[in-house]
Amino acid sequence: MIQKIKKYSTTNRLVFLGIVLGVLFGIFLPEMALKQQVIGQIFISFLKMLVVPLVFSSIYVSIMGLGNLQSLKNIGLNTIGLYLLTTALAVLTAITVMNIVPIGNEISVQGLEYLKASEVAPFSFDAMILSFIPTNIFHALAEGSMMQIIVFSALFAIASLHLKKERQLLMLDFFSAVTNAILIMAEWVIKMTPIGVFSLISYVIAEQGVDVIVGLWKYVVMVISVLLVHALVTLPAILGFFGRVNPFKYLSDVREASIMAFSTASSTATLPVSMRVVEEVGGVDKKNASFVLPLGATVSMDGTAAYLTIAVLYISHLAGVDLSFADQFLLGVTVVALSVGVAALPSASLVMMVVILNQLGLAVEYIALIIAVDRILDMARTSLNVTSDLVVVKIVDQLQKIKKQNV
């Protein structure tokens, strides 16, 4: 264990160095930084290559390992309940801070247009539910539709529990081997992290430019501040209360996954790293990690929920609309509800923002004012999404261990 922690500590130091050098490279040599984007794309492609087989096999192995539907029900309720709790607290933090320190002076959007927002189809609850169910599992696997893959693999595993014992063992042994092989490949990709991070960060800085961030500095600072409060106060408090562990030591040990999420801006691309790290240095049982983390990569959106809440309140200030307590409460409930379901749809954040703005009667065109810094903030909110996953999986693991001790 100590050797593994040292290995990840060395990687973390190299990653931080990659971030610093990437920022400097992007600022002082932007043309070169833009041309080397392919290195970062190769790195992300390797990560994404692992995600679909890893999610399918790990969910299957996890449910088969539970052995019965009652155990699945217990761990499933704990997981969903904790994800809803952390998301709700993230939204509450965002609303509280935006009311204490309101930002955004009234401005007209006349002449502004954000075409992509107008292309988003109106939100439909029926469409959201149907999007969870794969009509063709091979198409879902090819497209990387995570929620559909999770639903099918869960049903496949439950059906396998009804097979004869020898066939259950055969299936479990096969998918366990697949999971282990994918995690070994993930370890190879992790060694590329410093170079991948350097490439990704330098490209983003070169593409976005520092001037864009400076122009919206109050908005950027507000989003980052709320995300940090949730990451450094709320989540550790939840982990300490429910998990009965030292939250800061644990989060420090598994920080590799959060750093990776920041650089890739993708929860699913980070999944192979998250699973490897929580098992090797976080002390989480593989069976629990295999169930909680793939689900979290799809439905856990603490960072996104907090970001959307701030963005909508910021836009309301720009529009000169004073949202009442009831409006803000409705905003909070809507964000929490949508964060679980809309994750299965393409352009999830955009869909959620359009839905909420329409619900509150705010002009969608205001998105054009804040989209310039969306890429930078996307990296930050994705890092928080993954940090929340790391916290929830540890709590679920601790609760399962306590339950076993009491039996």
Plain-language structure description:
The protein has 407 residues and is an all-alpha fold. The protein has one domain (2-406): Proton glutamate symport protein (Orthogonal Bundle). 82% of the residues lie in helices and 0% in strands. It is built from 21 helices and no strands. The protein has helices at residues 2-28, 30-35, 37-66, 69-100, 115-119, 125-130, 137-143, 146-160, 165-190, 193-208, 210-215, 217-243, 247-253, 255-264, 267-280, 286-299, 302-318, 325-341, 348-360, 367-370, 374-406. Helix 4 (69-100) runs antiparallel to helix 18, helix 14 runs antiparallel to helix 21 and helix 15 runs parallel beside helix 21 (374-406). The chain is globular, with a radius of gyration of 21 Å. It starts with a helix and ends with a helix. Residues 111-117 have low confidence and may be disordered. Pfam families: SDF. Keywords: Cell membrane, Membrane, Transmembrane, Transmembrane helix, Transport. It is a multi-pass membrane protein. InterPro entries: Na-dicarboxylate_symporter, Na:dicarbo_symporter_sf. It is found in: Cell membrane.
Main features:
single chain; mainly alpha; Proton glutamate symport protein; 82% helix; globular
Question: What's the level 1 CATH class?
Answer: Mainly Alpha
Averaged pLDDT, please? 84
CATH homologous group name: Sodium:dicarboxylate symporter
In the CATH hierarchy, the architecture is Orthogonal Bundle
User: What count of helical segments does DSSP give?
Assistant: 21
Shape: globular
Query: Mind describing the biggest β-sheet?
Result: none
Let me know the number of strands. Answer: 0
**How many domains is the backbone divided into?**
1
Query: According to CATH, what is the topology?
Result: Proton glutamate symport protein
**What is the first-to-last residue Cα distance?**
28 Å
- Strand-residue proportion: under 5%
Topology pattern, helix = H, strand = E = HHHHHHHHHHHHHHHHHHHHH
Structural class: mainly alpha
Round the Cα radius of gyration to an integer and report it. 21 Å
- Which segments are poorly predicted (pLDDT under 50) over 5 or more consecutive residues? 111-117
Share of residues in helices: over 70%
Protein name: Dicarboxylate/amino acid:cation symporter
GO molecular function: symporter activity
Pfam families: SDF
Keywords: Cell membrane, Membrane, Transmembrane, Transmembrane helix, Transport
